[in-house]
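FYI - complex with magnesium ion, inputs then prediction.
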Amino acid sequence: MSINETQSPSNFIRHIINQDLKENKNNGKIVTRFPPEPNGYLHIGHAKSICLNFGTAAEYQGTCNLRFDDTNPEKESDEFVQSIQRDVQWLGFQWHELHYASDYFEQLYDYAVALIKDGKAYVDSLTPEQIRAYRGTLTEPGRESPDRNRSIEENLALFQGMRDGLYADGQYVLRAKIDMASPNINMRDPTLYRIRRVHHHRTGNDWCLYPMYDYTHCISDAIEGITHSLCTLEFEDHRPLYDWVLDELHTPCHPQQIEFARLQLEYTIVSKRKLNQLVTEKHVSGWDDPRMPTIAGLRRAGVTPAAIRDFCERIGVTKKDSWIEMGVLENCIREDLNENVPRAMAVLQPLRIVITNYPEGQTEHLELGNHPQRPEFGKRTVPFTREILIERDDFAENPPPKYKRLIPGGEVRLRGAYVIRCDEIVKDENGHIAELRCTYDPATLGKNPEGRKVKGVIHWVSEPHSLLAEVRLYDRLFTVPNPDNEENFLSVLNPNSLEVLTGCRVEASLADAGPESRYQFERTGYFCLDTIDSVGGRRVFNRTVTLRENWEKD
Ligand code: ATP
Ligand code: MG
């Protein structure tokens, strides 16, 4: 993998780790984790966190765990657990250990009992609304709950009763006893446990009591011996609570939480909740719709893991929130595909050409290189015949100025083949161009014609040999750079984000293209054979990215 090969630029997290190593903290060990909640598919924002956590561990000969933070059973499912594992591995990473926060439920419960015994937690009967009202504001301190000074014995009995299912959902919560006047609202006696009778995708109905994220996360990190707990900036205000819980419990390991800026990418959204809404309301075909910023969507579009890793490396890791232009991601994809995928010819909107001076029934097998800069990619055979197809756009009856492609009476070179001249336009009864009748110059195979210049080069396929294909042209999912800032993000969905072209023709060499085969269709863009819909003889290609950036900056 290229992650270790290229010397990565420095970032503040590497500085912290280098310093820790100097001081021989944690005996020089580096242990990180990637902790997704299995409530959706991973998106490009998660890729940043994955590359950071797995990449940092690899760079320092450390290890990285995959841990499912599965403490919100309502929204979680095994489908998401499976997809997350698939996506992490596809990105090129392998976890050291696989864990589930739910595996720690028993330990977490014991730790909560220890807090109660220490007088550091209490069972509260305030309703969620009351808790909110008691919490105070940024400018006003909170008020203490009347239950705050319940005896340890009573707390222990109530907490056991909560576990045993004696109380209704919401009747009690367990809260940490910290400081209702703390300037940090997260420290005003945060809830540690709530009663919830919901089925959990792993523990089934074993529990009706579930621990809160903040309580679970730090203890899970400590249990696994994580040294550096990397998370996004919104958890900065939660760090005092993270540290408080571990200090109070005297856990043998006390990981260091370090926050970094979330990835925010223009023209898309990176929120599982909103992506989920796009899927359930069918604005897209699924989590793996190629327009989605999910790993599965990018994969289906034809993006490679290397391009995503390169993108994450280029955007770097900072403490400051910023928006990344979509063009940055697209350029990473383009550069990777340009270098690494073979060329092929495909005609998306065919116009028939009959080469009148080419012998009927003859086929010439031309040898074309698969990659202009990489001879090791080899050559393929491309059949040339009397009837060929070119792109409708590559012919103009009334050409605009500087038009370099085919025009009536003009010449153009067919890529890898001959120069042809358009002699006649044949129209149908509606006046539409049905076909062109051309002649070819037999002396121009791989050579310039004598005494005249032919500027344009166009792609083509043999009509009898070419294969039918459907081509899906994807565009950005939203019409504005920051859809998240809209009151209703659905109102700025791009209505033209998908254009389906049927009746496209691709060259015969693609007959055996396997799922996820990627190509540069010459002059057209980068495409990938759709894994899901290319069945039963159907051939569907997804456009991964255009050849050039064609979105103007606002
Ligand atoms: P979402 O709002 O999309 O659900 P999340 O942060 O709740 O995001 P988690 O499954 O909890 O999603 O995230 C797993 C890890 O990925 C966390 O450490 C989180 O900080 C990180 N992460 C999530 N979104 C981003 C992002 N946009 N950029 C960088 N890291 C992210
Ligand atoms: Mg979350």
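The first helix runs from residue 2 to 5. The chain has three domains: 12-265, 272-340+469-506+513-545, 350-464.
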